Amino acid sequence: MQTTLKINGESWTLDVDPRTSLLDALRHHLDLTGTKKGCDHGQCGACTIILNGRRINSCLTLAVMHDGDEITTIEGLGEPGRLNPMQEAFVRHDGYQCGYCTPGQIMSATGMLDEVSQGWPSHVSASLEGDVPLSREEVAERMSGNLCRCSAYPGIVRAIRETAGEVSE
Ligand code: FES
Ligand code: FES
User: Where in the sequence is the domain holding 11, given as residue range(s)?
Assistant: First the structure.
């Protein structure tokens, strides 16, 4: 079945089995292997991408459902020698060890900061309105869908808070 995806600003038309997940389409049909497969069940966040401006788990949706949709993967944020601020902050704050979860963490953090900028509250936000200060608790709650088996969470939280303009510790 044919589907056209706009990925990192480029249009790709694929002929895929309708059962192909978006994650497998990215990794196996387009060689965009920066997006990782951890659980393949929506539990770990390793496969997080931005779809039409919202962060999603790409393992939980089918490629053919996204004809014409705009997708950003980790490859679209930056590359070696030209990292974006979130990627730089992860490096600076040791926000990883093995690095397997890192693309998903960075994509999720990018989508999460956009949600914060739009004033979306989280379960732990003190108020449902107004600016949301990105405390450690806020970041932990909003990133709770992204697991790190290496437990690099302190560095991940520092990197995200610094990128958001919160005080770095
Ligand atoms: S691989 Fe998609 S959530 Fe784990
Ligand atoms: S850095 Fe190893 S799983 Fe997160």
Answer: 2-75
Q: What is the pTM of this model?
A: 0.96
| Three-state DSSP class for residue 49 | strand
Inside any domain, residue 169: no
Pick the residue whose CA is nearest to atom 3 on ligand 1.
42
Q: 153: domain CATH number?
A: 1.10.150.120
Phi, psi dihedral angles at 79 (to 5 degrees): -150, 170
Cα–Cα distance measured from residue 7 to residue 11, given in angstroms and rounded to the nearest whole number: 6
Ligand 1 atom nearest to 47, measured from its CA? 2
Predicted confidence band of residue 166 (pLDDT cuts 50, 70, 90): confident
130-146 pLDDT tens trace? 888 899 999 999 999 99
CATH code assigned at 61: 3.10.20.30
Pair (97, 61) in one structural domain: no
Residue 149 Cβ inside 6 Å of ligand 1? The answer reads no
